[in-house]
Amino acid sequence: MRYVLFALVSVGCAKGGVGLAQDDGGKVVVDGTEFFDGPDLGRPDAKVFTDAHVFNDAHVFNDAHVFNDAHIFNDAHVFTDAKVFMDACVPIQTDLLSNGGFESGPTVGWHEVDPEGELIVQPGAGLTQAGTWGDWQGSYAHVQSDEVFQDVAVPANATALVLTGYYLVGTQETTTTTVYDQGTVALVKPAGEMVLESALTLSNLNSGPTTFTQFTHSFAVAGIAGTTVRLRMATTSDSSNLTNFFFDSFSLVATHCP
User: Fold this and answer.
1) Where in the chain is the domain with CATH 2.60.120.260?
2) Does the pLDDT at position 10 exceed 70?
3) From its phi and psi, is residue 172 left (phi > 0), alpha (psi between -120 and 50) or beta?
4) Engineering a disulfide at 247: which of 58, 103, 120, 135 sits with its beta carbon 3.0 to 4.6 angstroms away?
């Protein structure tokens, strides 16, 4: 009987079923492996010091959703989207007039209203600002009206519209105070020619200089962008003492996105 009891105890220890012993040296023996107690710091719970959920959990330190998610750091919609940084147009300038210097003659770009003949002509030396062709209006000793015009389409996204040209006035009138013959440069509506904005007003009182005078006018573009307008040079003469109006070298430049 003793032999049988000894064999049972030996087998139980070898398999580690319940074999556990603790000595007085602060160590624990489990299945032959010794574990020593550390100093008692009053904080032995591993869930306070080493639990991954407190110190090393990726959701706290390394989770891409916190640190490296492209939607926070590298998403083009935040940092490099062209619509934020590069989607602005580079404005260009376009001369809307055809044959602004009249050098292609009376049939290109312009239209004339004159019961007595051509207005876009070769008037002679000194009567054009450049080249040999120009717009010559007036020069009547009777009541008469002249007109030269060109219709242009203003770009819908235009931010500026600037007219530049030259004029020369000569008269037989002797007064220095009374207007008898007049000239205007203006933008008008193509239908009915209602004046949208005047750019220049002339009369026999502007006579004197023997060389061409340059003028520049910036139109208010907000109300005409995206529409067709008419650039018109027009003159009226009274019944005596003629006045000559010469126009040349026009440009009508729109600033807009291409």
Assistant:
1) 92-256
2) no
3) alpha
4) 135
Strand partners, 197: 187
Take residue 98 and report the two structure tokens written for it.
């055809």
Q: What is the pLDDT of residues 142-171, one digit of tens each?
A: 999 999 999 999 999 999 999 999 999 999
Contacts of residues 57-63 at CB distance under 8 Å and 24 or more positions apart, as own/partner, are none
Comparing C-alpha atoms, which of 248, 255, 253, 252 is closest to residue 103? Answer: 248
The CATH topology of domain 92-256 is Jelly Rolls (2.60.120)
pLDDT of residue 52: 45
Identity at 208, one-letter amino acid code: G
Number of C-beta neighbours around residue 2 at 10 A: 6
